[in-house]
Structures are given as structure tokens and as C-alpha cells.
Design goal:
mainly beta; 9 strands; EfeO-type cupredoxin-like domain-containing protein; signal; three-stranded mixed beta sheet; Cupredoxin; six-stranded mixed beta sheet; Immunoglobulin-like
Length: 133
């Protein structure tokens, strides 16, 4: 019998993979994301990890059918807020360049249909350095 729930083990596995892949071969760049889609993500940020290349342009896009609020992009360690957007319209996007490798977090608030309370969602962004070949 396993003392850890399946969800905890999956989160630990994703987090471990994020720490192990800090440098990758340059030819693997085509497999890294260039667009981060903000949608109705529920759960801990460690469950949703995007891998993006350091020093390359990455698009962050609101793919919800409603405005998202208080969008913040911050480096995790050291904790440093990079960008904050009060209202991010549906379909709106912004292009960013993560110059330093490391772990970042994107958090935002959205209101489910027919709800009166906002829900917060967060995703983790693992910025990796490309090796020269």
C-alpha cells in the first residue's frame, strides 16, 4: 500500500523533472513551448509545468472567454515579481523573454460563469538554458 496519494506522486515527479532539465541540447529547442496558454487551471502550480528556452521570446496568452485579473509573473527563487497586469482581455497576449534560467510562476484570477467569487490559478514555468552544439 502506497502512503502517498497519486496526485502527490505526480506533482513530485513533475517537480523533480523540472529541476533535472536545466540545460538541454540546442537541437531540442523545437520541443520547448513558445506559447503559454492561460486557461481554467485548477490545483497546485507544480502540477502544470511549462518548459521554455532562456533568451527566446515566449508568448503568454489569455485563452479564456473572459477577462482574467491580477495576472502576475514572478521568479520563484529569489521571489521577484517581474510583470503584473490588472486586466488581461480574452485573446490578448504579451511577449516576454526570460533571460535567466530558473523557475517562475504565473498566477491569475478568473471568475467562473455564474459565480460571484474569483478563483486563482497558477502555472509553473521552467526556463532552461540551451547548450551549444
Amino acid at each position: 500500500m502506497n502512503p502517498f496519494p497519486r496526485k502527490v506522486l505526480l506533482a513530485a515527479l513533475v517537480t523533480a523533472a523540472a529541476f533535472l532539465t536545466t540545460t538541454i541540447p540546442a537541437d531540442a529547442e523545437t520541443y520547448l513551448l513558445r506559447t503559454i496558454s492561460l486557461t481554467t487551471v485548477e490545483g497546485e502550480a507544480s502540477e502544470y509545468t511549462y518548459h521554455v528556452p532562456a533568451g527566446k521570446s515566449v508568448r503568454v496568452q489569455n485563452d479564456l472567454d473572459r477577462v482574467i485579473h491580477n495576472t502576475s509573473i514572478a521568479r520563484v527563487n529569489p521571489d521577484k515579481n517581474m510583470v503584473r497586469v490588472q486586466a488581461f482581455q480574452p485573446g490578448q497576449s504579451m511577449d516576454l523573454e526570460f533571460t535567466a534560467q530558473g523557475t517562475y510562476r504565473i498566477c491569475y484570477e478568473w471568475k467562473p460563469k455564474h459565480a460571484t467569487v474569483f478563483q486563482q490559478s497558477c502555472v509553473r514555468v521552467n526556463v532552461v538554458k540551451l547548450q551549444s552544439t
